[in-house]
Every structure is written in structure tokens, then in C-alpha cells.
Amino acid sequence: MSREFVSSDEIRSLFAQAMSDMYRTEVPLYGDLMELVAKVNADTLAANPALADQLTRNNELARLDQERHGAIRVGSADELSTLRRLFAVMGMQPVGYYDLSVAGVPVHSTAFRPVTAEALARNPFRVFTSLLRLELIEDAALRAQAEAILEQRDIFTEGARALIAQHERDGGLNEADARRFVSEALETFRWHGDATVSYATYHALHDAHRLIADVVSFRGPHINHLTPRTLDIDAAQAQMRKRGMEAKAVIEGPPPRAVPILLRQTSFKALEEAVTFPSDSGGERGTHTARFGEIEQRGLALTPKGRALYDQLLNQARDGGAGSTGADYAARLRTAFEQFPDDLDTLRREGLGYFRYALTRQGLTASAAERAAPIDALIASGLATADPIVYEDFLPVSAAGIFQSNLGGTEQRAYEAHNSRTDFETMLGSRVIDEFAIYEQWQKESLRALYT
Fold this sequence. Notes:
Layout: H1 8-26, H2 28-47, H3 49-57, E1 68-74, H4 77-89, E2 93-99, E3 107-113, H5 117-122, E4 126-132, H6 140-151, H7 158-170, H8 175-186, H9 199-208, H10 210-216, E5 225-228, H11 233-242, E6 263-268, E7 272-276, E8 285-289, E9 293-298, H12 304-319, H13 329-336, H14 344-349, E10 355-359, H15 361-364, H16 368-371, H17 375-380, E11 384-388, H18 396-405, H19 421-428, H20 435-450
Parallel strand pairs: 1-4
Antiparallel strand pairs: 1-5, 2-3, 3-4, 6-9, 7-8, 10-11
């Protein structure tokens, strides 16, 4: 048997494609969404050649059609730490800590994703992974019951566990084992319509929070969406409605801008799916809503200074009325973000976003003395470009808004902020990576290369 190892990038690509194929079968509307996004992206690129050139320069155009993020919710430390090991086989590491309890969602999360520019260019698959916070279940008896239920299940196949251990022991997987790993790992993310709890228990969990029922009541943590990247989310949302998809009323994140920043997301409402409960509880049939179709538009990665301004303005818009559920929210959001600069030069000069610098063709032929000029002078004279570094991560408020819209549609503020990053990292089995440090490194490396 061959000992030649397959790269983690290749395994990630195989897994992302297998996940997409599976989800398209389980949720046919996902296929419609993919076709819609492809059409919007093609139209956007045709109308904006400068954007096409920018994406090509930064290795983003080739990855666009395959770009996805998924989301999964787990219930225990063992499930979380084993997922970390599973994703490591695919070259995906935990980046960022997200406390969604501040938005009434009893989870905290991280994003498993590639962390190098080269790996992201190969395949930027990401999985937003949330851990249920059992301590936020107020009913002590229900909390104990949920914990006992979670202790009894194993969301990973024996084959997946064995191949993870083999990868850790040998330092990689050959092609046959890599394909077997993809097949075994996919089982963790598959939808199962048979609940593992009684009808009464499901509803008790559901009454505590819909997401608690979703995490605890099934054999596995079914992937609840796969998200393609669009270049024009407003056009995509209009097309969703034109095609009869029940799109969210509000696009999460910042308002429409000349320079997109961070992340904007929308979705169609969660599917109502048939569920069969155990025969010892009467074999009742019911329904469950969890899985939905989501699309996203990614923009400039913001610096800590830019992120602080973003959070300030977002809170200003949300606190100016009925959160993001008020009919005037879009207007409040636009008004608040008038204070956020909306041109690349100002964003760069004021240190609000991260940029990737490179010499132009003219710059490559310039003299050493000319290339030694300060960066602003190089850009002004056409010797260098400053392209926005795309945001590769997630927004806690944005993600929570998507969660809430598909778990009942109304905001709730049932949980006070209980940031518990240390506890999360203990259960994860590693520290999470600071996303700002990644973007800062890319910017510094591009500047260093400019002057060498």
C-alpha cells in the first residue's frame, strides 16, 4: 500500500465537495441557491472588470465557485475536541472565539478554517462550530437530563476515530485512506430524521430553547447550512424572493456600501422536516426546523480600530429601536454607518482595514530609488497597489441574527454576557487563534516583500 501522503488541502477539497453533494441531496433548495449565486457572481464580474482584476491578483477568483462555509452544533467537550482533531486532518484550525449568549443563543463557538493565504486559495472551506452551554439551561433537572443524553451518544464512526488517530500517528493519510476518511467523517454531518429522545423530552428541550432541542435530540450534529459566497448579496436576495424563496427580512451585518466590510449574510427560512420519535414513546411523528439556505458577501477585514467602530455603529443602530426586528432597522443602520468611511484610501490611511500591497508592472521596472519611496507615494505614483484583504471569519452578532431568524424569528435577550473563552479552550483542547494576528501578518509580509 502506498505511503505517499495526500495533502491536507486535497483532503479538505474532497470533503467540501462530498459535503456539498450530500447537502444538495438532502436540501434540494441548496442546489437552486448555488445556481442563483453563480448567475449573480457572473453578472457582477461582467459589470465590474476592476473587481475581477482585484480578485484575480489576490487568488480569490479561482476559489469563488467552490467557496463554502458550514455550521455545526455539538453538545460536549469530547465532541468538540474530536472535531478539532478531525478538522486538523483537513488543515483546518480553530480561529476566533464567539460568545453568542449575548444574543440569546446558548452557545459559544469557533471557526475551523485554513489559516494560510496559500491554503485558502486552494480551498477556503470553513465550519462555524458551536458548543452548547448546558450551564445556561435554567431548569436543573432538564440540564442534567440533557447532559446524560449527550453522554450516551457517539457522533463519530469507529472508522473516523481510527483514521484520525492514524493521521496523528503517521503524519498523514495516503489517497485510499484519505478517501475513506472523507466517507467516514461525512457521517457525522448527515441528517437523521429519527430522534433519540421521547416526544415529551424533545418538547421540554424545545421550550427551553429551540437550539437546545436541535443539539440534544438527534444522533449527530447534522450540518445545518452550507453557505456560498456572492459578490452582490443585495442582488442575490432580490433573486431569492423573485424565485419564491422565503428570504430573511434583514440582511445581517453592515448596510450596502461602496467598499464592503466584514461580512453580510442572508438566508431562506429553515425547513420544517419530519421527525420520528422512539417507539417506546408511542412512535409519534413531529417536525423539526434547523436547516436552512444561507448566502454571504465578504468584504474588507477590519483592524481592531475598525472593528471597534463597526461594533459601536452596529450597537447604535440596534439600540435605536426594536433591535434588528424593527421595520425601520435598515434606515437606522444606513444612518449609523454614515460615520464609517467608505472609500479604500481613507480606510487604509486611517488604519481601519487590512491591505495587501504589491508592485504594479510599472513598479517592477522602476529604479531601486523610486521603489524606496514611502508606501503612500508608491501608490500615488502608480508603482504599487493596495488591495483589501478579504475577511475570512465570522461576526458574532451576524451569526446570532441568522440563528435567531431560523429558530423562531424574534430576538431574545434571555442570557446575559457570560464570556467563557478559557472554558471553551479547555474543552476544545487548544487555544483559538487570534484572527487579527493573521491579517496583520499578511499585511506586514506584503509590505516587507514590497521593499526587498
